[in-house]
Amino acid sequence: MSIFQTCHTDWGLYTDLYELTMAQGYFLLGRHNDRAVFEYFFRKAPFGGGFVVFAGVSELINVLENLQFSEEAIEFLRKEGFKKEFLEYLKNFKFSGTIHAFPEGSIVFPYEPVVRVEGQLAQLQIIESVVLNVLNYSSLVATKAARMRLVAGPEAVLADFGMRRAHGLASLLAAYASYVGGFNATSNVLAGKMYGIPVIGTMAHSWVQSFDCEEEAFEKFAEIYGEKTVFLVDTYDTLNSGIPNAIKVAKKLEEKGIRPRGIRLDSGDFVELSKRARQMLDEAGLTYMKIIISNHVDEYLIESLKNSNAPVDGYGVGTRLVTAYDQPALDGVYKLVEINGKPRIKISNDTEKVVLPMAKSVYRARNKSTGRFAYDIAVPTYKSELPDEAIPFYHKGLNPVKIDKALYEYEKMFIVAMKEGNCAYEESTEVKKQRAKEHINHLPNELKKLKTQTYYKLFFDPEIVSEFEKRKQLS
Fold first, then answer.
1. Spatial distance between the Cα atoms of 238 and 241, rounded to a whole number of angstroms
2. Per-residue DSSP letters for 173-218?
3. Residue in 291, 303, 223, 218 with CA at minimum distance from that of residue 261
């Protein structure tokens, strides 16, 4: 089940107008069936970090499999001025392209092709906007989640609490992407059902306020939920009311053989409050009860709490996760690199915006002794072997690299995700999450820092750069 299978049927209209405008132009010129190759990549790792957790391929496949133009959609486009012949073409539209991509959960880096889409030119043009819409957001949130996991450590509970602050139905993609990036659970019940993610939740202040006294609110909740109970202790006075009442109710539960899960802090000085809470709980013999915090949580707050030795066991993360608060967009792009077997380039005075030609595959070099990622190499798809040497393009000052099969093993990163319009990629969300965890473990340490000036090494087959120089002279 997917968000794109439950919400609407006119996914053909889920695009920018200029995509359909160009597609109509190709059609009227008789070029709509030209064979094209587009590649998706991004130019800069977000949040000042050194990597991206790639996510969203399954959702992209879902929308492409359901992409069609209903009679109502055709009528809408007719009123917008599209020509009859083109609308007849759209009536029978079915995406028939092939998608090669890194598996979800893979760690990816600036400038390398992450997705390669092959097919009919008009079709590939129409889908550009949705490719960017799904992959950019999913990968951005998955990366934000991974950064929090890196700082929080493997034992801390990280839960997505962001539905109420998300941008509409993006809350579903956020729950999914954050789980791939390393979170444990989500509060979003529909996302839990759709993606097989554990769901988690406690109580709100309104529950406490609805009773005449706080202790009664805690007692009634605990009567219903027993060992799942997490007390929200800051509705009135955290230290003088909330925690003492939570302790009273917890001790009563203990007499019945029930051990409540913990308490949640949603405001105040989290360092001081968590330390005092831990002391009070321990003195009451409630050493097993966990301390969860929420409210404006991100990787920087988690890092600060860790550095202050705050005894926090878990985090409910909302706004700053689902909005990717400090960088709310990933600059992923989708560029034409080949048409009818002929390479295409994009030239710019800014080297960072240059697009290298040719359909490419990507290989990753792992150190055989450590398993660490060392560098990636992009090669033309028609090559079945790596070149003897690969050269840098975007990274100034980087020397060419000799292919060393004694020191490194080389893994081909692309899989076939969609074959001639049909899904060819099925993995559980859990598998994607475990891949992200494994890949992050094998990152160079410098790239795991929240802020880094270090970039991952990316090289290109010399034939790609040579073809670029030739095309540049011809343009």
1. 6
2. HHHHHHHHTT--EES-HHHHHHHT--B-----HHHHHTSSSHHHHH
3. 291
pLDDT of residue 122: 98
Q: Which of 474, 390, 419 is nearest to 112 (CA)?
A: 390
CB-based contact 388:459 (threshold 8 Å): no
Helix, strand, coil tally for the chain in percent (to 5): 40, 20, 40
pLDDT digits (tens, 9 = 90+) for 317-371: 999 999 999 999 999 999 999 999 999 998 877 777 899 999 999 999 999 999 9
Helix (H, G, I), strand (E, B) or coil at 9: coil
- For the cut 90, the answer to whether the pLDDT of residue 8 exceeds it is no
Please state, in angstroms and rounded to a whole number, the distance separating the CA atoms of residues 130 and 16.
Answer: 9
Summarize pLDDT for 41-70 with one digit per residue, the tens: 999 999 999 999 999 999 999 999 999 999
Q: Return d(Cα 455, Cα 474) in angstroms, integer.
A: 32
For residues 472 and 474, give the distance between their C-alpha atoms in angstroms, rounded to a whole number.
5
Of 220, 200, 218, which is closest to residue 157 (Cα–Cα)? 200
Residue 366 makes CB contacts below 8 A (sequence gap 6+) with 372, 373, 374, 408, 409, 410, 411, 442
- The answer to whether residues 159 and 314 touch, using CB atoms and an 8 Å cutoff, is yes
367: which strand partners? 408
| Closest C-alpha to 58, from 107, 101, 14 | 101
Identify whether the C-beta of residue 402 lies closer than 8 Å to the C-beta of residue 389. Answer: yes
Alpha-carbon span 173 to 177, nearest angstrom: 6
- Quick check: helix, strand or coil at residue 50? coil
- Collapsing DSSP states into helix, strand and coil, what is residue 139? helix
How far from 423 is each of 67, 118, 130, 191, 365, CA to CA, in Å? 13, 14, 17, 21, 28
Assign 1 a pLDDT band (cuts: 50, 70, 90): low
CA distances from 243 to 26, 136, 204, 289 (A): 67, 42, 16, 12
